[in-house]
Design goal:
The structure is a homotetramer.
Chain A: E1 4-10, H1 26-41, E2 59-66, E3 75-85, E4 89-98, E5 105-115, E6 117-119, E7 125-127, H2 132-135, H3 143-146
Antiparallel strand pairs in A: 1-3, 2-5, 3-4, 4-5, 6-7
Chain lengths: ~150, ~150, ~150, ~150
């Protein structure tokens, strides 16, 4: 579907910290992995190789609400939903569900807003319109799925 | 001061990603480093060894707004300010300033809410009051510093 | 097989650095993931929950030879082979193969030696014999597989 | 000195894993930080901006021997010594010393071999001679320092 993507990951030893739980910064790595899988599911790579104007997707906002910790070897599903589509930016929400709990339980909830940019000489980035071939393939998720 | 702490870090090679900028998840590592330095500045460790009831500080909310990217070897100051103090939780805001820019520029702005917990047998955590010896040493920053 | 295990991973954006390739430290994370999958394939977790004496496996030696870089979205197979089994330690070799190359090419070669330890009061660790139920399930790979 | 450099770091919470000690892969991040500081101490950046031919330094070999674990908030000195200088490669050894132990104790010992490369169109790298202005500033450490 052009507004949803799911990945499943097992929490690795190197994802944990001395509190015995997944380090809170790693939830953001997992969100990004879902985002990049979403792009692949649409036939693109987040690192544009196969479209005319190469674009990048720096983050302008990221957040996460943590409800329950994840532990080593927990299996977690990360569901990405497109929550907003603008001419130059996309917003996603992410639901983290612990699959090896019965019943399956939502352990965290994230949000990400990314802006489409082109790179100029050197490292300077400028916001630009999302390339049409990408924008055409992405929809906003239905309100009931977004929990609105 | 009991409501503020600053660290300065140089962005390392392993903090960057293939976009040539600091990976967005690492801003959360830097926030935590400032938080733990704040605790040391008060005479504590975030890993309680020297108080009667050992407590932990899991995150319940984390967010970051990114305004400008950080690059390899940039010097960044992370300023922590206590924005809220409740019986069982603390909230912080963080200002990231790139020191090797002239003028110095704020590149990111973060927030963190942490809850004080005790650990029971196994891995179960329960929210508890912030130990008095810690709570007594922490103030909320003046509104003008918080930008309210 | 009691001397071999394979995992396949896709290189993630957060695994890369500003050189555009997987950061060299992440090969060690991937080795560990293969090691822990190997233990699960034998019916154990590297974090012993289901055997009588809980043991840990700190690393005493780790190394990696890098032949070719890995890039974002490369699919890499990590093959673990048990190269040595002693009463208190295990050694593994690891072959990293880039699957999305034709022909498939070995891009890195790693080694790991881990020691079996028990934890005493606090953080002190002491080397101990590998528990029989684990040792009995692990064989050393044939010399020809190890390339000896 | 043109063959030695030292950094001091405090082990951070995000450097630790659920075993309560610094994750073994992070010793390689610390080695790299010392390497890059060494280059800055010579007036260069590892990311060549200020020399004629931009070069990179991919790793071809990395290893570490772990003698004692590092814990959260430990202060560790990482000493880099140049152990070999060839026309296209450099080798370093690293000594990790825990400063908050009395007496100070060596907790790990690392090695790194890096090759000087130029980047061609795309991502292809070729080994090249170390630029003269860099090579001229680097010496091999005396044998007694290297422990040979």
């Amino acid at each position: 579907m052009p507004y949803e993507f799911k990945i499943v990951r097992r929490v690795e030893f190197s994802d944990t910290d001395m509190a015995g739980i997944m380090h809170y910064s790693n939830f953001f790595r997992f969100m990004e992995t879902a985002e990049h899988g979403f792009f692949r599911s649409l036939g693109f790579s987040i690192v544009t190789r196969n479209i005319e104007t190469p674009v990048g997707w720096p983050r302008v906002h990221a957040e996460c609400d943590y409800k329950q910790p994840l532990h080593f070897e927990d299996e977690v599903e990360v569901q990405l939903l497109v929550s907003e589509k603008r001419s130059k930016s996309l917003s996603y929400i992410f639901r983290f569900r612990k699959l090896n709990a019965s019943p399956v339980v939502e352990v965290a909830h994230g949000k990400l807003t990314v802006v489409c940019v082109t790179h100029h000489a050197g490292t300077k980035m400028t916001a630009c319109n999302i390339p049409k071939e990408i924008a055409d393939k992405i929809d906003v998720a239905p309100k009931e799925l977004l929990g609105l």
